[in-house]
Design brief:
single chain; 97 residues; mainly alpha; flat
Length: 97
Amino acid sequence: MGVSLSIKDVPEALAERLRRRAEANHRSLQGELMAIIERAAAEDASLPAGPRAAPGAVRPGTKSIQQIAAEHRALYPQPFADAPRAVDIVREDRDSR
């Protein structure tokens, strides 16, 4: 069971910057705060040594980009020959404005 932490009286401007950072990283605010705390704790060499994740390991319940790519290749070994390319869709949308 994890520990719940709480930070009181966070200035609205700071909270908004954290929300934007979380959005840019495709995370919830909770996930972004956890990533910041994990990174800060890992950088602190004065903390006692404890179990650490292997380099490149992902958090439980998540997948690495390599795992996702391998699953995609297994499901779709050949590209769709008759489907439009993403770049063509984006160009068409951009040029329609």
